[in-house]
Amino acid sequence: MNIVIAKTYKQKLMGLMGKKNINFGMFFPNAKSIHTFFMLEPIDVLGLDNNMIVREKYPNIKPNKILFLKNSSHTLELPNGASLNYKIGDKVNL
User: Fold this and answer.
1) Cβ pair 26, 74 in contact under 8 A
2) CB-count burial class (<10 Å; 0-12, 13-18, 19+) for 87
3) CATH topology of domain 3-85
4) What distance in Å separates the CA atoms of residue 23 and residue 55, rounded to the nearest whole number?
5) Does residue 50 come out as left (phi exceeding 0), alpha (psi in the -120 to 50 range) or beta?
6) Which residues does residue 66 pair with via DSSP β-bridges, in sequence order?
7) Which of 5, 23, 30 lies closest to 93, judged by CA?
8) Is this prediction's pTM over 0.90?
9) Would you say the C-alpha torsion 69, 74, 77, 80 has a positive or negative sign?
């Protein structure tokens, strides 16, 4: 699966908002919280530490929610159902 790294302000601001049939992930470095306002479909969210190890896993996050990651340094948003391929402790390679 392709992963887009949110580098610009616009990428960080927009993320996956307004997208349908999401078939890629989006990585947000140094982001410990996300929102799903203006999203058109649910997503999965992984919280990663500085070594890119999965520390938190949140499947099926519906639109119009706020999510605070407690034990993570970075956020990876994935298409709904994609987090089934990951478990806590897995290393994510971008």
Assistant:
1) no
2) exposed
3) Jelly Rolls (2.60.120)
4) 23
5) alpha
6) 35
7) 5
8) yes
9) negative
Q: Phi and psi at residue 81, in whole multiples of 5°?
A: 95, -15
Q: Domain locations in the chain?
A: 3-85
Residue 50: CB atoms within 10 A of its CB come to: 10
* Cβ proximity of 80 and 86 under 8 Å: no
- In the numeric block, which tokens belong to residue 28? 């947000």
Q: What is the DSSP string of 44-78?
A: EEEEE-TT-BEEEEEEEEPSS-EEE-SS-SEEEEE
pLDDT in tens, 31-73: 999 999 999 999 999 999 999 999 999 999 999 999 999 999 9
Instruction: Kindly give, in sequence order, each residue whose CB lies less than 8 Å from that of residue 31, ignoring residues fewer than 6 positions away.
Output: 6, 12, 69, 74, 75
Report yes or no: 6 and 27 within 8 Å, Cβ to Cβ: yes
DSSP state of 31: -
